[in-house]
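Q: Hi! First time doing this. I have a protein sequence and I read that you can turn it into a structure. Is that right? Here it is:
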Amino acid sequence: MKRVAFIFKTPPHGSAAGREGLDALLATSALSEDIGVFFIGDGVLQLIPGQQPGLVLARDYIATFRVLPLYDIEQCYICADSIRERGLSPEGTWMLDVKPLEPEALSEMLHQFDVVLTF
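A: Yes, that's right. Below is the predicted 3D structure, encoded as structure tokens:
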């Protein structure tokens, strides 16, 4: 079975990339047990709790990230540099249990996967 990584690097609003990536992630979880999820760049904004997508006329898919552990998706990482660049704290509260990694460690982790999909 191939190891599959999903990278979320777009903000939660303004495009459908995050929602499409989440749909693909959940569908892939039925086929593979070795999935990693990475939040990089503006993708870290996907995990900020308390967002109100309805205010910008967007669909509320963001809360769905909370169900990943129910699908046995437990390898979730967030880029520590991306967090700091956006004025957030790596120790902050996230919608999902994620492990902050520095860019070098994140890159090493990504290289352990056979397939990498970016959204």
